[in-house]
Fold each of these.
Amino acid sequence: MRTDLMRADLHVHSSASDGTDPPAEVMRRAAQAGLDVVALTDHDTVAGHAEAGAVAGPLYPSLALLPGMELSGRLDGRSLHMLAYLFDADRPELSAELTRIRDDRVLRARAMVDKLAGLGVHVSWEQVAAIAGQAVVGRPHIARAMADSGAIASPREAFTHDWIADGGRAYVGRYALDPVRAIGLVRAAGGVTVLAHPRAGRDTRVTDEQITRLAAVGLAGLEVFHPDQSGAERARLLALAHDLDLVATGGSDDHGSLTGYRLGGETTSAGAYQDLLSRVPRLA
Ligand SMILES: [Zn+2]
Ligand SMILES: [Zn+2]
């Protein structure tokens, strides 16, 4: 691989979480987009890695799969996302945490179904689970069940204050990881953590001061190049990454048809990629 020409998209979802395409199809699209490296970063799960690994490499020799995931956390009462790479998901502490996050998603979805029943909307847990299939269950699946039952005209209408939007009548909050703990767990499992899209949206804006705090406890990088971050935000984040000695990464956050196919639309430079790999801790 000529590293000077390398193209790496370090933020991609499959149907193992809320993307629309199975992992194998995501790898096919990554190869077609001419990528040298693609990171599969499904929410809170590594369930897509085996299928992706059987395709990237064996079928597409020029494509390397970087195993990863995207973790949801909460800092000072606000949610944020973290990308983790190259960790060993079987390490007991990390694996217990992932189980806890997934169990909570099920408990939470069931609690929302119960609240909906109290509001006269009769969707069953079985219906929601069937819609989710192999994917990690979430609000989009409840929204589809609500539309199927005729309670609302389209899934989008579920995301209002009347129903399951944040703070809505049938909303139930979720367990969220403390980012400091997440960084520690990933490091202890031999991986590195990058703060995802710190300035992408109103709900997930992470301040300079918060980023400085996370850098002090072992954060390895900042996702600078993301479709939802403006040129001005990128410039600010790039300067911050430089000041704090964090790797400036990029990724498309492709979710298949859900986001419009955009795999490879944002990338990480060859130098930044090598820098990220050099920060992988050596485990005793
Ligand atoms: Zn995210
Ligand atoms: Zn994402």
Amino acid sequence: MAIDFTLTPELEDIRTRVRTFIDTVVKPGEEAMGNRDELDRAEYITLILEMRAQAREAGLWLPHMPEEWGGMGLGHVELAMVQAEGAKSRMGPWVMNCQAPDEGNMHTLLHWGTEEQKERYLRPLCEGTAMSCFAMTEPEVAGSDPTLIQTHAYQDGDEWVVNGHKWFISNAHRARFAILIARTEDDPDLPQAANTAFLVDIPSEGWTEVREVETMHGSTGHSEILIEDLRVPADRMLGGRGQGHLLGQYRLGPARLAHCMRWIAQAETALDMMVDRSLNRFSHGSLLAEKQGVQWMIADSAMELYQAKLMVLHAAYRIDNKLDFTSEVSMAKHFVANALNRIIDRSIQVHGALGYSTDTPLANMYQHARWARFADGADEIHQMRIAQRTIAAYKDSGSTRTATGDLPV
Ligand SMILES: Cc1cc2nc3c(=O)[nH]c(=O)nc-3n(C[C@H](O)[C@H](O)[C@H](O)COP(=O)(O)OP(=O)(O)OC[C@H]3O[C@@H](n4cnc5c(N)ncnc54)[C@H](O)[C@@H]3O)c2cc1C
């Protein structure tokens, strides 16, 4: 039986190189930046570009892309290892050019783009000379149900004319192009087949950034966009008519798992900090690490992190082996997002007032972790789908076994 969790020497080497790179280049680089909000934008860009040049030189660039596109050519299991090391620092994924949403957009373009589209849009992303965004969610309708999308496109000669309203479009402020999802089919056979994806250059007449939405972690590039009579050439359609949902699902599987890989890094950082604090804080006659109440928090966090890692590795294995991964990615996304929130919360608890302050990264991590439970599929949507698949498996075979990872146990 071929279940083996050891890494080949080559992979162990990559993992060590990523770890060393993050510790010796990215973390000191972040420290040199200081408070990002107070930093001059030009200075900030210069620092990032310098770190990116070093990542390329070190062969730690685009871990998720094939070698012919300048990437490291890793599979998803291997990627899990790299992302979980890279995300130990906030800027790690940016420096290695595997950050959301560009990473998911690169996968999408690689799979769905025509040769011309790849040259025009994928190439600059891979070279790190452009950024992109993915525009689907709308303020007026539930983002959880893409069949409700109201942004509408109609064909006019060689062009499509789009009108609509989007928000929470990450990166839109700085993106050179968007993958825009709009309704093109008024009466599709399937409700999911109403939407189509388009590649939109930014800036374009008819594409207006209304504002960067202020969030609980600041105003950090999730924009509201008004689309008025935006004209998109017909050859900028990505995939076929009515394939927007399919494309979104294709994009979201690996992209959700990549989020999980980065969340594992964040959860591990929070647990490391929890243990470190408990070994250095004394109260009522002993260290916090010796209190049973604190040990329970450490134990629960360790068990959850272990489950998170196994789920991510198994879902990645299924993607790599061309097995259906929908359920496994869904379960991993739900579990890891929630585990992350609980682990950071416990770490803050053990740190007391210090954890609530901005003297440690925990407060910032907590604010970011909160969106993990509803963006890219809200908890309840994943639970609904997981339950549907579990019931269907039982109806089909008299057992729920295939719905619980289809594992040989
Ligand atoms: C930081 C951040 C970045 C984002 N980046 C992007 C981006 O780049 N591009 C983009 O297009 N979107 C983006 N989004 C939007 C995100 O994808 C949506 O928030 C998400 O899809 C949920 O849609 P919604 O906010 O409209 O919530 P709704 O769909 O209104 O759902 C609200 C809540 O209702 C409940 N709910 C909904 N449906 C059901 C159901 N069927 N059963 C039970 N409960 C249900 C859930 O609890 C859910 O959290 C981002 C959001 C955030 C916070």
